[in-house]
Amino acid sequence: MTGGRVVVVHTTGSVRAHLGELLTREGYSVESLDSTYRCMARVVDDPADLVVVGLAGLAESELELIPALREESEPPRILVTFPPSLREVASDALTRGADAYLLEPFYGSELVRLTASLLQNGAAPPATPETITDPEPLRKLAREVAHAVNNPLQVARLLLEKKNVTKKELEEGVPEQLARVEDVVGRLRTFGATESGPRSRADLNDLARAAAAEVGIELTAEGRAPVLVDEAMARAALEALFATVKERVEDCKAEASNGHVRLAVDATAFEDDDIRTLTDAVFVVDPQRGLRAGLALPRWLLEEQGGSLAIDTEGAALVFRASLPLG
C-alpha cells in the first residue's frame, strides 16, 4: 500500500529528515514532528495511518502517546525505533500498545518493508458489488486479535535478545508475556464455543485460489470435484498464510488438492534474518520445526478446524503445508 499518511516523531532532526525521505520516496504522505505533544495534536486534527516514534530522547511520561493514539476513533499502526541501550523502554512501548519495533541502526529497506506490512494489515478492503455483508468489523477484530497476540511475543523476544539478561528477568518476564497470549487465546476459545447455527462451507480450491490472488500468487488446483471446508475460517487462515509469506519473498508457487494447500518458495530468496524469524520456534510444531509469531494466526485458525500448519524444506525450497479436514 502506498499513499498512506505517516507521522514521524523523533527528537533528532537528521533522523527525522532521513525517515521522511525514505518513506516519501515510497509514495507515503509524511509529516515529521519533534515532539510527542505535537504529534498527538496533529493526529487528532488529521488521523494518520502509521505513526513512527523514535524512543531516543523521550521522557518516560511521553510514552503515554502510545495508548493515547490507540484510543483514537481511527487508531493508527504504531512503529517504534530505538538504539540497543533502550530495549527496556521499547518493551514498555510495546506493552502500552505499539505494533512493531525496529532496532537502530536499521537498513532503509527494513523500514520500508515493515511500513508496507503494517499499513497493509491495517487497511480496509475495497468494497465489491458481490459483498453481501460488511466484512470490516470481522477484519478489524482479526487485526486487533493479531496485535494482542503479537505484541507480548515481541516483548518476550526483546527480553530474550537482551545482553546480560538475568535469570530473574527471564523467569518473570517471559511467563508474564506468554500469559498475556494465553489470555487472548482463552477468550477466543470461549467466544468460539458460544457460536450457534450452521457454518457455511465452500470449495477449498476456490477459497485457496481467491486468497492467493489477493496477494498476487498464482495457484493451481487439482481435481474438479468440490472439496468442502469451513468457508470463513479457511479463508481467513489462507489469507493470513499467503500474506505473511508473500511479504517476505516475491516468487511463490501454490497448489491445492484433497484438503491440502502447499505453498513453496525459494529459500535462497530469503535474507538470513527472515529465514531465522520464519523458522524460529515460538510455537512448536514438533521438535524439528517451528512457526514464527507472524504465522501464529493462520496456525491457530487451521487448528481450530482440526487442521494443521507445518514448515518443511525440499531441496532449495521452503514449503508451507496447510491441511484442512474435509466436510
Task: Indicate the topology.
Blueprint: E1 5-9, H1 13-25, E2 29-33, H2 36-45, E3 50-54, H3 65-70, E4 77-82, H4 87-96, E5 100-103, H5 108-122, H6 136-161, H7 167-193, E6 201-203, H8 204-214, E7 219-221, E8 228-230, H9 231-246, E9 252-257, E10 260-266, H10 272-279, E11 283-286, E12 289-291, H11 296-304, E13 308-314, E14 317-323
Parallel strand pairs: 1-2, 1-3, 3-4, 4-5, 7-9
Antiparallel strand pairs: 6-8, 9-10, 10-14, 11-12, 13-14
Supply database-style keywords.
alpha/beta, 21% strand, 327 residues, 5-stranded parallel sheet
Range of strand content? 15-25%
Element string (H = helix, E = strand): EHEHEHEHEHHHEHEEHEEHEEHEE
Tally of helical runs: 11
User: What composes the largest sheet?
Assistant: 5 strands, parallel
Note poorly predicted spans.
Answer: 123-133, 280-292
Query: How would you state the average pLDDT, rounded?
Result: 76
| Radius of gyration over C-alpha positions, nearest whole angstrom | 20 Å
Helix content: 40-55%
**What is the general shape?**
globular
Category by helix and strand content: alpha/beta
Distance between the termini: 36 Å
Strand order of the largest sheet: 2-1-3-4-5
Q: What is the number of E strands?
A: 14
